[in-house]
Amino acid sequence: MTNQTASESKLEQTAARLRCIECGALCESAAPNFRCPGCGDLLEIFYPGWGSTGLSAAGLKALWRQRRTSRLAVDESGVWRFREVLPSLRDWHHAITLREGNTPVYELPSCARIAGVERLQAKHQGMNPTGSFKDTGMTVAASVAREEGFRWVGCASTGNTSASMAAYAARGGMRSLVLIPEGKISWGKLSQALDYGAVTCQLKTDFDGCLRVLNQAVQRAPVYLLNSVNPYRLEGQKTAAIELLEQLDWQVPDHVIVPGGNLGNSSALGKAFLEMKELGLVSRLPKISIIQAEGANPLVQCIREHGGKKLVPVRAETMATAIRIGNPASWKKAVRVLQTTGGTVEEVSEVEIALAKAEIGADGLGCEPASAVTLAGLKRLVKQGFVKPAESIVLILTGHLLKDPEFTLKFHRGDLFAQTGDEKEVTTAAPQQRPPIALEASVDAVLATLEKAEKAGWNT
Ligand code: F0G
Predict the structure, then answer these.
(1) How much distance in Å is there from the Cα of 323 to the middle of ligand 1?
(2) Is the CB of 192 under 6 A from ligand 1?
(3) Does ligand 1 lie within 6 Å of residue 264's CB atom?
(4) Does ligand 1 have an atom closer than 6 angstroms to the CB of 132?
(5) Helix or strand or coil: residue 373?
(6) Cα of 321 to ligand 1 centre, how many Å?
(7) Are 122 and 377 a contacting pair, CB within 8 Å?
(8) pTM for the predicted model, two decimal places
């Protein structure tokens, strides 16, 4: 291997192992459904060799920084750049990479004012190659699938996983099978899967039903499962937290706020922070809080009604279709993250989501509806006093604004809540609505509109 330092080769030897999160059993290899053969719970990856490498935190930080000047594909990737804390491939240079990660951290000055905090930052994972955070996990799990010799990969999805999987499969010379709930994913995401060449099946069920069918399919056909029950996905998704801390000069924020759907991402970010502490890269943890839509809130109920011990599936309904999930697979991992970091859960209404999305848009960033639950949740957490105005806060924006243009257009035209029963509440959203204005093709009409807009102020 080229450009390899002594510390790099040392850590590469610390192989990843699979362990059941419930009974602790070690698995030599994963079953097709990535469940423990003994108790049926989820698996996680751990690295027993880390304690004996003698690798210093300063050494890792320097190595990762140095790679940013390299032109090697694995170094340009914002995931593989951190390969010391990832499962090893037989050859790193065979990683399927679209140069994922490397996503910016932005200030949100007007959202900060609205939420009542001094300063607010967002790491925009929608700036990944296929427009969502899924790419960071997909590069790892798709690369593992190819090394294991799979020709087919598959996932159930609310849209982003399928878009990402289809892209990485295509880049890696594999075929992909997508199961999506009919009529319940945004067109932007569906069109991505089609263009990247997936076999795309729209099933007459919801996301949870699609996942059930896929779990059965992978037992009967040699299709590699790429949902977030696949622990290799979560390893890749960890790197967003590492990259974030690097961008913050290793200063740990007080709060990290994440949307919750199938709960893979919050689990991955939590694991990353814990491992960074274990490796001495940071000395404390941020509080990781998870926000769900009111209509798709099984984790909120799990914490509030069952003390985190039991998850009762719900029939999920929300216009934030990415997180329309009633039976999240990774709930136990997420509960552990909440408990170890001292974070909390919150739920937000459809109107709060739509409003927050437009507010993030007005800061010049934009995101998809599921990402906007973070700002909506923050507003609630500030009111409750859980987040203090002077604390440092990072929102994780998970998907790009262009993923779901239909939602955005309907919001600004004022018909998002037509026939939903939320029409009355929606007057609170009116100041954020900026509908397109139909005019005669005349300069006078344009200038009159300009004058009116100037008088009315910025947000009307
Ligand atoms: N935000 C976006 C934009 C998502 O697409 C998802 C999940 C989430 C948040 C929630 O993340 O599931 O890790 O808790 N989307 C999945 C999919 C389920 O199929 O694309 P999570």
Answers:
(1) 6
(2) no
(3) yes
(4) yes
(5) helix
(6) 9
(7) no
(8) 0.95
Distance CA 317, CA 455 (A): 40
Q: How confident is the model at residue 3 (pLDDT cuts 50, 70, 90)?
A: very low
Residue 427 has pLDDT above 80, yes or no: no
**What's the average model confidence in pLDDT over 247-251?**
98
With H, G, I as helix, E, B as strand and everything else as coil, classify residue 105. Answer: strand
What's the pLDDT score for residue 245? 98
What the block records as the tokens of 154 is: 């598959």
Segment 98-124, tens digit of pLDDT: 999 999 999 999 999 999 999 999 999
The CA 102 to ligand 1 mean position distance, Å, reads 19
Task: Look at residues 158, 203, 110 and name the one whose alpha carbon lies nearest to residue 316.
Answer: 158
At residue 179, what are phi and psi to the nearest 5 degrees? -115, 120
SS3 178: strand
Ligand 1 atom closest to Cα of 325? 18
DSSP state, 42?
B
Tell me how far apart the alpha carbons of residues 413 and 411 are, in angstroms, rounded to a whole number.
6
d(CA 179, CA 36): 24
Grade residue 205 by pLDDT with cuts at 50, 70 and 90: very high
Ligand 1 pocket: which of 158, 184, 269, 325 to mutate (most atoms <8 Å of CB)? 158
279 and 60 Cβ atoms separated by less than 8 Å: yes
What letter does residue 294 receive in the DSSP assignment? G
Identify the top-confidence range among 2-11, 171-180, 413-422.
171-180
Nearest C-alpha to atom 15 of ligand 1 is from which residue? 322
- For residue 158, the CA-to-ligand 1 centroid distance in Å is 7
- Kindly tell me if the per-residue pLDDT of 7 is higher than 50: no
Whether residue 323 contacts residue 346, with contact meaning beta carbons closer than 8 Å, is answered with no
Q: Is the dihedral of CA 360, 362, 363, 367 positive or negative?
A: positive
Looking at residue 15, what is its pLDDT?
Answer: 82
Q: Which runs of consecutive H residues, i.e. helices, occur in 202-317?
A: 207-220, 231-247, 264-278, 298-306
Do residues 291 and 260 touch, judged by C-beta distance below 8 A?
A: yes
Is 17 a residue whose pLDDT tops 50? Answer: yes
